[in-house]
Amino acid sequence: MQKNKNLWDEIEADLKEKTKSGYKMALLDSDKLLRLILKDKGYPGKDLKKQLFWAGINLDGRQNLKNALKKKEEILNVQDYRLSSFEIEDALEAYRKTIEWVLSAEKISLKRKIGIVLENHLFLKNTSLTKIFILILLIFFGIKFLSSTEMGRSIVSKVVEADNFLFSWLKIFLLFGLIIAVTIFATFIYLDKRKKIKIKE
Predict the structure, then answer these.
(1) Any stretches that span the bilayer, and where are they (predicted)?
(2) Are 51 and 35 in contact (CB under 8 A)?
(3) N or C: which end of the chain has fewer CB within 10 A?
């Protein structure tokens, strides 16, 4: 907690300078503070994106924070990188909101981890998994309805009757198909043998 307070003090001191270098340092210190709080809260991950994910923050849905992280990287990697006061303000505001979010969140638990995965990964990112999940639920409730209600049992009975009727016709068609296939095959063999006999003669 003391580290957090010290960083807050540093950020405020950077802003009071009202210089470009001061604003840049405020942004870098905000990033440092965010990472420190995420670590203190116990969110796993080797990089910030993964830690934010476990905190329940999806970068794809937070463009302002995404831009702020990009600007922080540019400050570190681009010499004499210039930022307007408006860009700095937007970036710092994005960091501030994220820090407040993480501070208000509980320390991560197993239940929380499962909830975050379901909320931010499986169902938001993968629509096919969402459809499969919904289909499984529908099948489950459908079976429950059919087995536990009079109407459901009546529907099952009618479906079984229809299935038996269709299956009986299907067996007849398959039998006819098999007879025709055997007849055609036998005919080809017979004609082939006759052709070979004529050639020998």
Answers:
(1) 128-146, 166-191
(2) yes
(3) C
Q: Tokens for 90, please give them.
A: 């937007």
Q: State the DSSP string of 26-67.
A: HHHHHHHHHHHHHHHHT---SSHHHHHHHTT--GGG-HHHHH
Window from 27-31, 47-51, 101-105, 130-134 with minimum mean pLDDT: 130-134
Q: How many helices (H) and strands (E) does the chain have?
A: 9, 0
Q: What is the DSSP string of 9-28?
A: HHHHHHHHH-SHHHHHHHHH
Alpha carbon distance 46, 55 (integer Å): 14
Which of 75-98 are b and which e, b meaning 16 or more Cβ less than 10 Å from the residue's Cβ?
beeeeeeebeeeebebbbebbeeb
Q: Which residues contact 119 (CB under 8 A, 6 or more apart)?
A: 56
SS3 category, 84: coil
- The values of phi and psi at residue 63, to 5°, are -65, -35
List, for residues 65-88, the tens digit of each pLDDT value. 889 889 888 888 887 778 777 888
- Give the model confidence (pLDDT) of 141-166 as tens digits: 777 776 777 776 777 677 767 767 77
Q: Confirm if 46 and 112 have CB atoms less than 8 A apart.
A: no
CA distances from 174 to 105, 164, 166 (A): 65, 15, 12
